[in-house]
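[job 4417] fold queue: 2 targets
>>> target A
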Amino acid sequence: MSGSNTSAPGSTASSPEPLSFTVHSQPDPRALGEPQQRAGRLRMLLVLAVCAAPVIASYFTFYVIKPKGSAYGELITPTVQLPANLPLTDLQGQRVAAESLHGQWLLVAVQPSACDAACERELFVQRQLREMLGKERARVDKIWLIPDDGTPRPEVLAAVQQKGVEATVLRVPQEALAGWLKPAEGKTLRDHFYVVDPLGRWMLRAPADPDPKKFQGDLSKLLKASAGWDSPGR
């Protein structure tokens, strides 16, 4: 057949040589000397130390040094842990686990459901405080705790739940809340903002009727010192 590469019978053309492969053995880790193994372990420990340094430094600053004179608000020492059994519910009456609030910084306001002008101003300032944090605001959740059984007016709910700047609105009995958060002497719970760290510990209380710029300075310092505790967005 024209163009065929098939050799005719009896052809003396030599047959191709079979292919062969050479397999090279992998180095045996046991052949590494003790100095190399020690160097590898040392490098791993250095990497872990670098990753843990921000968390260790922030814990040391706030819970060992306790810089009481450097805050506009009042640092709470010792901190007060969010009770695991705090009876939180949403506005539909569904139970909300306290542990679900962990993982973010919380800026907490305590205001009644019958939100008056002072309450509306407090919720507005809460919103502005978070926005003033700029790129760090994603690390902070706004929480409105309602210590009664009433339902807020629709226009108030619409304002605090506006997309992109929404607050989490939860109901909690007054007596249970009083076992966790405390106002300053001569004040009530609704007079303050309360800052809770990502591990669920109440650690800062704003003055009554705070200067937003000064209190925002406290929040910025906390977020800077605690880089690595949490991740932006819940």
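>>> target B
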Amino acid sequence: MSSLQSVDLVRFTDDIKAWGRALGFQHVGVSDIDLGRHEQYLQRWLENGYHGDMQFMQAHGTKRSRPEELVPGTVRVISVRMDYLPPDASFARNLSDGSLGYISRYALGRDYHKVLRKRLKQLGDKITAALADTAFRPFVDSAPVLEHAIAEKAGVGWTGKHSLTLSKEAGSWFFLGELFINLPLPTDTPVEEGCGSCTACMTICPTQAIVAPYTVDARKCISYLTIEHDGEIPEVYRKAMGNRIYGCDDCQLICPWNRYADITRESDFHPRQVLHGQSLLTLFSWDEATFLHNTEGSPIRRIGFDKWQRNIAVALGNAPYDEAVVTALREALPHATALVRPHIEWALAQHHDKKSQDGQSRQLQRLTRAVTKGLPRDA
């Protein structure tokens, strides 16, 4: 085991990157801990209230933008990327079928927090075994960490206009993880920004949540509304949600850089068939025990059964008119919780309107045929 004074840190950093790739990370970069520019941006974002109900975004003061305050002794952050794009490419088709429940790609497999954190811990242990002076702590979206800012400084990618990290080799279909470390490793150079004049993500957003380039108002974002938001979903956004019941991928699906994304090597991230492409009626029929069983080891479980039903009720309201949908909603209403009930009532109102409009349309068609039938042939 070596000491810090005896190690060539440039060569040692190359070893760390090789160990990281062997553990399944597609990119490993090193960032310093000066996030001052990003701290100013975070403060403005919070002052605008764009974090919505996510009080954890401001609860830790400057720890989020000052890694050395979160983990004393930290002088560098190792940023890693792990691709999660599964081989099944039917996502866009599922999004266009209003009778199916659409779940964001990242959430269809095993909980990424567990997968990445375990590998980061292994990487940290590998470094410690080689260098006695090492102290580290892994994070995967589980603490006040500016992961996109760190990834940007570590050369993993640039921050896109949708606020996600983008890479020319991988698009945005990847998870990020961080290893806070006390070693003064040589840092990587940020990559050149690649969005240019493209605004496809801003244009496609169903709720126009990307209020300016690189700025997302979470209060409008479907991912926030279906996952982080604990209350009623504002009516103004319910129709725009369509059949999205957990998260939203629109800004990524439209991004030109995602044409270059590779399929994941991790079978843990492959879609569970019990979740992927299932009908809304099937998903809505689950009781809480079934929900907990089918989402075991999945990031979906953390939203809880109430929010799951709330989201599906909205999606059922947006589904094509079907008596089976109306029956399912009516049967669920008497037993619905205070959170779910208003969304079922809204969904039933949507189907009442659809039935009325359908009846009016058929009546108009009959009148048109009758009038046309009575006209002279040369009219």
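[job 4417] complete. Note on B: Strands lie at 27-31, 76-83, 102-103, 136-139, 158-159, 165-166, 174-181, 210-212, 215-216, 244-246.
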